[in-house]
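User: My collaborator sent over this chain with a note saying "see what the structure looks like." That's all I know about it. Can you take a look?
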Amino acid sequence: MLDSEKTGAVTSTENQEVPQQKKKVNSSYKNPFWSWVLPIAVAVIVALLFCAFIARPSRVMGDSMQNTCHDGDLVILWELNYHPQRGDVVVVNDQNLLQENLIKRVIAVGGDHLVISSGTVILNGKKLTENYIKERVWSGPNVNMIIPADKVFLMGDNRNHSTDSRVIGPVNVSSIIGRVSLRLFPFADIRTF
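Assistant: Without extra context I'll predict from the sequence alone. Here is the result:
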């Protein structure tokens, strides 16, 4: 008879006892309540933190930004490390003469020389091409100023129906809540900015 250890033959384990391995059971799956509540709670906390420190939803009120944004649109504001740039659509808090949150476009930033006359915007000596405004012919107060540091000059895209920096003056950069980065609703008009 051959020695199975020397030949490498396989021996049958039918009659041998095999030790049972202990199965690890995740305790969260024992209780069905926690198996669905825990992921929802984590998702809600993550969403709240995201909205508090990175981006937040906001509703557009009024017609001053037509045709870019309309009354009732739901937009997402980007807040994290935001520094205003010319052309950005922003929302500013109610610390202004109108005492309400405003959605407007940044036309000029600190240090810029801005001239507005007869429906024309001249920024640092160059006429702005503004494809985003609702009406090509618009009027309003004339402006000739250098924007102070840490301030921005804001105007609505619906120039004939916008109370903006032409009336309330430049706005503090610290008053900006965030840049409009996404129009989320109505769903047919979803777009990024």
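A starting point for your reply to your collaborator: Residues 82 and 178 are 7 Å apart (CA to CA).
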